[in-house]
Specification:
The protein has 181 residues and is α+β, with helices and mostly antiparallel strands. The protein is built from five helices and 15 strands. The N and C termini lie far apart (52 Å).
Length: 181
């Protein structure tokens, strides 16, 4: 029984020692929406610690090439930080999903919204789910072309990889669908 406890405690010690002894601790956000081309570290994570250069580290720019796939993960961030600082860094979290809101909205405004059709089949749309004063913004794919006020089916991809779900909503604007529960 004693060796079993040691097996459990030993890895926990190393995890906690990394957090305790690191000069800089970085807690990655789950998801951000951005209109900027270059994003600073302070936009994707909480950064704190005992380093003198903490403000410089928060201001490190993350180039668009690093999140061209829509994510910046802890490995990419760790490589970037190793080039910029000699302080010990502990990163908590796996990745940050970066959603470029300005590009999608500009493209929709120019291409999609002309001619009265606000949502086109196959287009990525913002689905706003509302219930009792609470709003949740999700992303889905339109199943058909629709104009303002018309009902539309939106295909939602499962975050757990179990397939997809079809949600019925009403077109509210350019690339925007609302579902009231």
């Amino acid at each position: 029984m004693m060796s079993f406890r040691l097996i459990l405690i030993f890895p926990l010690f190393f995890i906690l020692s990394g957090i305790v002894f690191a000069d800089i601790k970085i807690f990655l956000f789950h998801r951000i929406e951005s209109t900027e081309d270059n994003i600073a570290l302070r936009n994707v994570a909480h950064v704190f610690g005992n380093s003198v250069s903490l403000d410089e580290i928060r201001g490190i720019t993350i180039s668009e090439e690093l999140y061209s796939d829509g994510y910046i993960d802890r490995r990419e961030l760790g490589e970037l930080l190793r080039k910029k600082t000699n302080d010990s860094v502990y990163i908590i979290g796996n990745a940050v999903r970066i959603v470029r809101t300005d590009l999608d909205l500009e493209l929709r405004a120019e291409d999609t919204c002309a001619g009265g059709v606000l949502v086109r089949k196959g287009e990525v749309v913002n689905l706003i789910v509302r219930k009792k004063g609470i709003s949740i913004r999700l992303i889905g794919k339109a199943m058909e072309d629709r104009r303002e006020g018309e009902e539309i089916n939106v295909k939602m991809r499962s975050s757990r990889g179990r397939g997809s779900k079809i949600v019925k909503g009403r077109v509210k604007g350019c690339g925007e669908v609302e579902k009231i529960l």
